[in-house]
Description:
The structure holds two protein chains of two kinds.
Chain A: E1 4-7, E2 10-13, E3 19-25, E4 34-39, E5 46-50, E6 54-55, E7 63-68, E8 71-76, E9 86-93, E10 96-99, E11 103-107
Parallel strand pairs in A: 2-11
Antiparallel strand pairs in A: 1-3, 3-8, 4-5, 4-9, 5-6, 7-8, 9-10, 9-11
Chain B: E1 3-7, E2 10-12, E3 18-25, E4 33-39, E5 45-51, E6 58-59, E7 68-73, E8 78-83, E9 92-99, E10 105-108, E11 112-116
Parallel strand pairs in B: 2-11
Antiparallel strand pairs in B: 1-3, 3-8, 4-5, 4-9, 5-6, 7-8, 9-10, 9-11
Amino acid sequence: EIVxxxxxxxxxxxxxxxxxxxxxxxxxxxxxxLAWYQQRPGQAPRLLIYAVSNRxxxxxxxxxxxxxxxxxxxxxxxxxxxxxxxxYCQQFSNFRFTFGPGxxxxxx
Amino acid sequence: EVRLVExxxxxxxxxxxxxxxxxxxxxxxxxxSMNWVRQxxxxxxxxxxxxxxxxxxxxxxDSVRGRFTVSRDNAENALYLQMDSLRAxxxxxxxxxxFGDRSAFDSWGQGTLVxxxx
Lengths: 108, 118
């Protein structure tokens, strides 16, 4: 089973700042199946990025994804108040989905 | 608009059973694989089951295999999760999700809370 590790666990930033979130896999991940989700407090998760770098419908262009192999990054170019949330990476391989433990982006 | 509405959660004793349902609308349900994902209180996301569009392929993680059974009724646009031999560690909000054509979970329900406690 591929294990995903996310860092940092918590990122404390101010609105307008840039956020860089890391997701590392224990084995190489298919780029077709690496996604990022956002979960705001009290809400269901929502899809942000699919296939490493493609924004889902309605996602603003301040969100971008990159990476390959075992190292992936979600970047939020300028944090808006609604971006303070928890972010999860996810992969699919060998008929199993796994999620990373999440990175919480909170207000400094 | 894609809509997924879960129901069936509640309080159950350890060793008991519960059946969750997910009503889907706004898309051609029979064309998509569907999944259940859960989230224990204050914890992260855990994938629980997957079922292909015609129920041909079904997958579970080790944590629930042999205890949980996923099924679907394409005529009724419904997804189900039969949960048996429930344990305290199964306590979580259970989300119904669609595996979209972008190879990710592109739609989520609002979740239903399952509490396993004596």
